[in-house]
Amino acid sequence: MPLDGVAATFEPKKQPLGLVYILAPSAEESNAPRIEGLALREGLLELVKNTYMNWLLDRNQRAAELDVLTRLVANVSVRRIIPPADPTRIAALCDVIVQDAEKLLRSRSFAAGAGH
Fold first, then answer.
1. CA 78 to CA 38: how far, in whole Å?
2. Can you give the pTM of this predicted structure?
3. Mean pLDDT of the residues in the chain
4. How many structural domains are present in the chain?
5. Are the C-beta atoms of 77 and 19 separated by less than 8 Å?
6. Does residue 60 lie within any of the structural domains?
7. Pairwise CA distance, residues 115 & 73, whole Å
8. Residues 44/70, Cβ–Cβ less than 8 Å
9. Which domain holds residue 57?
10. In 3-state terms, what secondary structure has residue 77?
11. Is the backbone of residue 9 left (phi > 0), alpha (psi -120 to 50) or beta?
12. CB 58 within 8 A of CB 99
């Protein structure tokens, strides 16, 4: 999705989902920004906590939502971003995210290619 402020529209075609990042509260720690991998269960709990309008869902809809999220965490890496408290370090945060995504997606595409 382009974020240029002019053509900010959603992608009209289906695209594969490679990673999910959960944004944690900012940290004063010297090792922020950083990204942490989440275990399947923790990733599922984080996604459930970040769903919206769930008070509108009936029991069947809630079960369907949980099923989708369970399949999602089983197939896509869920990671936590710990941003720095210092706003002047936003560029470093962006670099950490790009490097993490490139590394994970590259290793996944390599592993998929090796299996053929």
1. 6
2. 0.77
3. 86
4. 1
5. yes
6. yes
7. 21
8. yes
9. 19-100
10. strand
11. beta
12. no
